Each structure stands twice: as structure tokens, then as C-alpha cells.
Amino acid sequence: MVEGRVCKLTPHSLIIFPPNVLHGCQVNTHDDYVRYCLYIDPVDILPERLPLLTSLVSDFHNTPQEILYEHTEAFNLEQFFYNLKQLEDLPKDVKDTMEHIFTEALIAQINLLCRTLRPSKLTSNASGKILDIVNYINDHITEPLTLDSISSSCFISKNYLNNNFKNTLGTTVIEYIRYKRVILAKQMIRNGESAMNAALAVGFADYSSFYRAYMKFLHYPPKDDIPTSLPS
Questions:
Q1: Nearest CA-CA partner of 179 in 229, 219, 216
Q2: 97-134: b or e for each residue (b if 16 or more CB lie within 10 Å)?
Q3: Which of 19, 25, 74, 138 has the greatest number of C-beta atoms within 10 Å?
Q4: Crossing angle for the helix pair 207-218 and 173-190, nearest 10 degrees?
Q5: Each residue of 160-182: pLDDT tens digit?
Q6: What pTM was estimated for this model as a whole?
């Protein structure tokens, strides 16, 4: 599930998520399967390699079909993930160096895949109204948002908003808003903004609620995202 849309996965599917996209997985089979998940932090990529990474995550809302690729067997991505997993027991200095090398190799392979295969389109599991609500929230994420204001702006009842949003996206409206604001604030902090200013800019009323949300969703404090040197 990706922001109210659904991917019914087939073997060897590849999904690429931009960093601010809410997604989740529901398993509807009793068969054995393997799923590889890799989070790639841009700060861990050499500057000259960044275009290979950023070109994979073009604007989600304008080009949602570009995040799903099927029938990727010929690109042997499983071997790249296997190589990364084999590093777990190595000494830290060796592991860190080789992780960079293998991750860049994986990014290059995925980039080649994306240039070769046609992306698949996501089906929609949500009503048009729910997708409208998601888009409205994302478009106004830094503004004051309440259940009353959203239901009024989208011309729906608050009861419909509460029940259908959670049934479709697997989370409440308020939790969705907090998550998106945390991710936006994270990018601002990494770009040199103070945590306090970022918290207020994305819509949190105070720093304590921002800090609690940051810890809940990211499992580490905002100070860990402060860059050691500001981007030029």
C-alpha cells in the first residue's frame, strides 16, 4: 500500500519509495517468500554518485507509476542484496567501506533497470475522495490542520474521514499528518535549519510534541540529523 494506492506484488517486483511516502505491506499468502528492504541515506552516497540515486525518486505525486517495476529477474538484484547481508559479521571498518561499495553498485544496477524496463502503474484501492483527502493534506501539510478543517474543506463528514481514512491507509489522519511533518522537518534539519525552527515551520505547535513524534517515527532524536558541516 502506497499513499492509498495498492501494489499487488508479483515475484521479482521492485518498488522505489521517495523518503516522504507513507507505505506498508499486508501479507495475503501462507507461502514462503523473501522481501528485501534497503533504506539509502543520501548523506552516505558520494556526491558524484547522487544523481544516480536522486533520478530514481522523481516527484511521487506527478509520476506515481515510476515507483513500481515488475519482472526484474534479468537484473539479478537478489545477488546485490545478498552481498550486503554477508557483511554483517565483518569488522566495522571493513563493513562500512564495503557497504558503500555494494550500495553504490546496487544503485547503479537499479538505475540501469529503470532505464531499461517500463514502470508498472499502481492500482487504486481508495475511493477518489480518500485520494483527494491525501492530496489535500500533502498540499497543506505546514498549515494548521484538524479533522474539522479537513472534513470541511473536502466536503465530507468527520465520521467518514475518520473511519475510511484508517481503513484505507492503515493509520489515522492525525498520525499521517505527524509523520509527513516529521519527514519534512528532517529534510530541513539536514539542510541546516535548527530543529526548533523546523518544528514550527512544518506545523508543530511546540518542540516537545515535535520531539515525541520524531522519536516515535524515526527512533532517534532530531539532533542526530544535524549535519556536521552545512551543504555548500
A1: 216
A2: eeeeebbbebbebbbebbeeeebbebeebbeebbbbbb
A3: 138
A4: 90
A5: 888 888 877 778 899 999 999 99
A6: 0.66
pLDDT of residue 64: 40
Q: State the Cα angle at 76 between 11 and 19, rounded to 5°.
A: 75
Cell of 198: 523546523
Q: How many Å apart are CA 56 and CA 106, to the nearest integer?
A: 12
Q: What is the DSSP string of 152-211?
A: HHTT--HHHHHHHHHHHHSS-HHHHHHHHHHHHHHHHHHTT--HHHHHHHTT-SSHHHHH
Is the alpha carbon torsion for 164, 165, 166, 172 positive or negative? negative
DSSP letter for 151, please: H
For the stretch 7-32, pLDDT in tens is 778 899 998 887 777 777 777 778 88
CB 3 within 8 A of CB 21: yes
pLDDT tens digit sequence for 101-110: 998 899 999 9
Q: Hey, what's the torsion of the CAs at 195, 47, 76, 71, to 10 degrees?
A: 70
Distance CA 185, CA 180 (A): 9
